[in-house]
Each structure stands twice: as structure tokens, then as C-alpha cells.
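Human:
If only I could read C-alpha cells as easily as an amino acid sequence. I am handing you a single protein, as its sequence and its fold in C-alpha cell form. I hope you can help me see how the letters and the C-alpha cells relate. Thank you; the sequence and its C-alpha cells follow:
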Amino acid sequence: MEVKQIHSMAQVDCANWNRLAGDDYPFLRHEFLLALERSGSVSEQTGWEPAHLLVMEGEKLIAFMPMYLKQHSWGEYVFDHQWAQAYQQQGIAYYPKWLTAIPLTPCQGNRIVIQTAVDPLEVMQLLLNFIKQLSVQRDISSWHCLFPAEQQTKLLQSLGLSIREGVQFQWFNRSYRDFNDFLQTLSAGKRKMVKRERRRVSEQGVHLLRIAGPDVSDLQWRVFFRFYTMTYLKRGAQPYLNPAFFQQVAATMGEQILLVLAVKDDQYIAAALSFIGSDTLYGRYWGCYDEYHSLHFEACYYQGLDFCIERGFKRFDSGAQGEHKISRGFEPITTYSAHWIKDARFAKAIEQFLAREQKAVQLYKQDAASYLPFKQEL
């Protein structure tokens, strides 16, 4: 086995990549990562320089790992700005750093994809050795792997990486027959709250459309992008993604996209976009012009729950943050990131910090779980 580094998804055959990636997790598909690059959303200019690693056995691709050379820490959802400040205070450069992640996408999944029957620990060790050697040659401070699946986290920890924990909120389908069946698992007060929120949306004359990716019109994509942009502009920021990205994923992997549009008086007033895995719905982007009572909950959560129940999906991963999700049945789960720090002094200090932080994170998760709305017998 040998490691090869490429600087564009265009340098690896789509069919070979997707043969390993499959379609369980849409963000690892060749089409998704290539759309980020070709649209210019991910590039050296935006501080996300592609530096993907391929593991070859002769001419055969047997494993891969998306990786980027980062010049900042924006768009990662695992915050290490304090680490960068500590480096700066000591007169040491923290950037550039290596980052293995799905850009702008805080959704757990495999980060190193390995052909069946190949030893995953051997592949990970090979990749880590390659990264370490390259970091010394190019004077790069560190490597960070964000939101890996739990099993891969354990393997990375066994190789000596520091593990950081976080918390997100996800919904799990316990074989519900329909939305009302799910509601019956909630306490009376929370059940009334959800019903009231859904009723308030319809009382405002708003109805929702769920549109499969291949059926979304050009006009509807333009409308969605305006809503998506508004989410950032309201915070005084510019959107990370551009129309070209959405156009490309619509054209190349539309079957894994779900668009929810809110309509009032024949006008689109809000939109939410999700990606579809084999058994998981991934809520990603939301936007609106004006605020309507409970519309965010309906478009971003309840429509997704309906979709998951109808399809028999196991899980709804609605993205980072959002404690308001707890009272609506989204449960706290642990997320992970793995970190290799080249400088031994900083590596020790960060390891100590993470040990302290982990205790606080676990207490927070326990506290969040105590607010779940389910009946006591559940």
C-alpha cells in the first residue's frame, strides 16, 4: 500500500471513489466534494485547499480520506480559535493546519473510507505516518479529524490522537406508524405544544411543499438560494456556498436532496434543504424573509420527522447546536473530533484541556437529557 496526495477531486475517478463511498452518507460522494471545488466554495482562495489522500494497492484505490490545508478555522463547527491564539502568543504559527472533514458540514460519518477486508488500523496508521512526515517537511502544525463515526474515533484514539467530545441533538425513529404515533410518546404538555405549533402555521395561511431534488425547478432553486443567503446576511455575514454549488449537486445527486418550501398567498416565504442518506435525513440549510410563528419548527423539524416516518428512516440528523430541539424529541448524542499536534508542549497542554472539557461536556449531555419530553416509561 502507498499513499498518494491529490489536490482536486477531478484527479480521482468518480466511479472508483463512489465504489468505496457508496450512497449511505451523501457528503462523501464524489459529486458532493467535487461540487464544492468546482463552484469555488472550497479553494485555496477561501482557505480550504484540497489535499485529499488516496491509498493505492498498485493501480487500485483501496481507501481514501478527504483532507484540506486550512488557513483559518471558520466553517468547521469544532472551535479551536483559543488554540490558535495560544500559538500566536508564543510566536508560533498555528496555520496552516491539516483538516479532515466535510467542509461546512457538521454531520458525523466515516472520514476514512476503506475497502472491505483491508485492515482499517493498518490504513489509518499508514495515513497518520504520511501526515506526520508531510507536516515536518512543510512545517504544518497539526492534523484535525472532525465528526468521525464512533468506531473510527476509537481507532484514532488507539493511535495516540487526542479526542475531543461535543454534543448535538438528533431524532430517532422507534418504528412510529405516523407523526401522531410519535406524539403519543411525549408528555401531555409537550404533545400539546407540538400540535399547537403545527396548527399555528396553518392558521397563518401557510402550507408546506416537500419536493424531491429532481423535481425542484430552476425558479425554486433560485428562491431557495435567496432564503439561504438571508440567513447569513441577517447575522452580518456572507454565505459560504454559492449558487453554482447548489446547481451542481442538483444536477449530479438530486435523488439525495429534499427541499421544503413554505407558501403563503401563492408566494414562497421560507425554505429548508436536507440531504438524504440510506436511513438518515440530514437537515442542512434554512432561510426566510419574515418571521412567522413556529414556521422554523415546521419547515426544519416536523416536515423532516414526517418524511423519516413515511420512509422508515432510523434517524434525523438536524445539524449543530439548537437546545430548542430537545423539547421536540431530539436527543443529545456525543460527537467526536481527533487531533494530532506536532509540538509536544502544546500537545500535552491541549490533552489536559480536553480532559477537563470532556467532564463538562458529559455533564451538559446528562443535563440536556433530563429535559427530554418523553413520557417517563420511555
